[in-house]
Amino acid sequence: MKRLVTLAATGLAASLALAACSSSKSGGSSSADGGSKDSAKAVTISLLAPSYGSSDKDDTKLYWQQIIDEFQAKYPNIKVDLQMATWDNLQTKLTTAIQNNDAPDLFEGGGYADVAAQGLLYKAADVVSPQTLSNLIPHVAELGQTKGQDGQKAQYGIPFTTSTRAFFYNTDLFKQAGITDEPKTWADVAADAAKIKALGKTGFGLPLGSEEAQAETYLWTLGNGGGYKDASGKWAINSPQNVATFQWLSDNLVKPGLTESDPATKKRTDLWKDFAAGNIGMINGSPALIPILKQGTIGDNWKSVPIPGKTGPLTSPLGVADFIEAFNAKKDHKDAVGKFLDFALQKKYQEQFDNEYLLLPATQDAATELSTQTPALKPFIDALPAAAWYPSSDPAWDPTSQKIKDIVGKAVTSDPKGVLDQIQAVANGG
Amino acid sequence: MAESLGRGVARRGARPVLTGLAPLAWIGPAIALIAFAVLWPVVKMVQSSTRHWSRYGVDLGSNGTDNYSKLFDEQDLGGVLIRTGIWVVVVVTVTVLLSLGVAQLFNQRFPGRTVARWALIAPWAASVMMTAIVFKWMLYQGYGFINILLDDVGLVDRASPTADWLGHSTSGFVWEMAVAVFVSIPFTSYTVIAGLQTIPGEVYEAAKMDGAGKLRTYFSVTLPLLRPSLMVATVINVMNVFNSFPIIWEMTRGGPGYDTSTTTVFMWVLKKGGHIGESAALSVVNFTLVIVIVFAFLKVSKWNSEAEG
Description:
heterodimer, A: alpha/beta, D-Maltodextrin-Binding Protein, domain 2, six-stranded mixed β-sheet, 12 strands, 14% strand, B: mainly alpha, MetI-like fold, two-stranded antiparallel sheet
């Protein structure tokens, strides 16, 4: 018995030690806190941002690094510690950092309403200058307003970039398959996908894996008059329209094998690359897909059109806004954070970003100038006010979005109602 | 008399206590270390499972057993528990059986044995996460090495949906178990090899003189004498495999849905979804399960019987 206890205790110690190691590894974001004694005013603020380009390149990192370098030339006392993440693990990285009391000072990319409601964010007006604030495109800025811990509605999310979504298809494959008209309805998509499958390619790319399933879900449910909330502003994720949408996807695209296999496990970036390699006939994408296509074998043999709905193309495009949020954990960083934001949201950096990724700006001066400089972007910029957006000012959106990423893929292989019910329960605070 | 008796009692009473405490000076630091590094985290773990946590780790006060009732209400928990059982039993059993063979082989004298033994360490020395990622790539639909191999042999069309091994829950889970076996074999084999080397040659000579055949010798002499090392190998494997996270996480992220998650992976999924309390409750459940399984296993296999006879 004694041996047994010793053995068990050793094992116990070993497994706990292992657990300790692994947990410290996963939490390992560094907080290089400034304020070193020799230079009294020097601070180091941290910025966590996602990579917008293809994951094997560091171009977004270079974009931020350039801003940081130029910023530091102007403010030598403020250092900026840049951390990049993939979209896939961005939110997890942030959540873990907050749980470990190590939130970055600035975070770009994810939802803000939930953390604002917890009182973890500065109000935008507390950090950035009034000029920066009034320069934000008004209806985009409105999306960044939510109730804080004090119950007052205020600007917490500072829009950084916006984009709209479109439907892309491979014109080469369409020609080979003898398709002449661009797809306008779901039935067209299914019929065209079947013809492309006959060529030995994938008909439609349906990324319902953990990366951005909330976008794909939204695009399809909007096409059937559904969406995340109903007209009265209540969560309606398991609405009959949404259930019917996934039933249709399952019956008409997934079961007949017209998509890639197992959509529930596929990432958007992987499928985009596959589309760029000419292996997929149709896919939903954002302007950020275009630079990837230019590098792929598909070349210029593609076209983007409005997203097909059940009976006709979507009239309002899906708009996606990415916000910057300023965490208030380190009070002595407030000034530095504000200075950096004012600097980074300048017109030239907004334009540089949008020209690089063909995304849309969040500030008015950049929008005006881009509309004349880059005519291709003008229709997208003009369409922004009418766009359908994520319910990102609802604090329940962040956990809901996470749950969608986790399980919505199963809605096309098992019972859609059951899966959507589970997500609805999370949205309702379950 | 009474006085001296009293003094005698006092002296007799005091001395054993003092001498009894003396070893504390030597083992005290070790005890303190165990208390700090082993017991305290356990206490903390149980404590945190009874608190109400915000999504971002702010303690909002006591929560009683709410975390546990929420956890047991999770629709996916049943499947996760069953899968964990299959995961542990299959991986450990296959690992031990294969390792017995591998150890037997590596215990033979053959040219290049040292090199071969070193090579056996490779899967053990490589980071498990790296191994998992490499396997994920080798299983990639269309271009993965394993798929190309299977295609060349004519077993599987590498572009077909079947070749998307990690996309389906069943085939994905089977491959994950295979990788778990792959990384567990080196340690287990080495433990068994060490056990084999402790068996004295005379025993085999005696068996030979008694006319025992090879099989008979293995099952009646080698295997019983290997029991202590097999026990150690099995117990450590059970705990390791039970708590294994990187293989499943890297290969399928526990998906599609949660269909390849074990309790350890599901714990992380819950935490990621902001359910810190539930996650803590699951880690208590997990911890209890490991202890119960290990004790039950040791009891059934009569771990200490070799000491008695």
